[in-house]
Amino acid sequence: MKRVKAIYPGSFDPPTNGHLDLIERGSKIFDELVVAILRNPEKDPLFSVADRRKMLEEMTKCLDNVSIDTFDGLMVDYAVRSEATAILRGIRAISDYEYELQMALMNRKLQPSLETVFMMPAEKYSYLSSRLVREIGQLGGAIDCLVPELVAQKLREKMDPAHKFEAVEPEQPKKSRKRKT
Ligand code: PNS
User: Fold this and answer.
1) CB of 143 within 8 A of CB of 137?
2) Residues 6 or more apart from 75 whose CB is under 8 A from it?
3) Three-state SS at 117
4) Rounded to the nearest whole angstrom, what is the distance from the C-alpha of residue 9 to the centroid of ligand 1?
5) Contacts of 109 (CB under 8 A, 6+ apart)
6) What ligand 1 atom has the least distance to the C-alpha of 11?
7) What is the rounded distance in angstroms from the CA atom of residue 176 to the CA atom of residue 24?
8) Catalytic residue among 52, 53, 89, 92
9) SS3 of 75, please?
10) DSSP H or E run through 29
11) Active-site residue 92, yes or no?
12) pLDDT digits (tens, 9 = 90+) for 123-161
């Protein structure tokens, strides 16, 4: 019987509950699902690819048919090399549709043997994005219901000023105190 292997490509910076919801849905309809993180040298990500890979591995460790990988270059080339026949993408709202349609049709033009499958995450994640999670996290807002606990923890570590300065600026001996103006 034909087994269907799918790729779920993305930036996952950071992975959110919405991504996890889609991975769980995808794992039910595909025999094998590879979550593939784009290694993009042009982007300045919040989390390294290695960090994102670790987070996704932890988040999906209970899903036997899900694995995590990274790729660069054209996604369709990576999918063909991996012997996948489907691409999984999520559509949260109508606003995603135009971009996703364009990408799916271009990918089809590049590699007609690959089929893009769109799935919708649960409605409660329809407003959730990695960009908003990064922004809320950086501004000190609550991100606990938006990402798995291990991701929230990693975000807090990144945002903790003590944590940041420790690495950059070792504590200097105290000099006489001047009033800041
Ligand atoms: O999570 P994102 O950032 O929406 O994912 C976008 C991603 C990684 C799926 C897309 O940018 C991609 O596939 N990039 C790889 C380069 C490529 O194949 N470009 C042609 C797209 S038609």
Assistant:
1) yes
2) 7, 9, 36, 38, 87, 107
3) strand
4) 7
5) none
6) 1
7) 58
8) 92
9) helix
10) helix 17-29
11) yes
12) 999 999 999 999 999 888 999 999 999 999 999 998 876
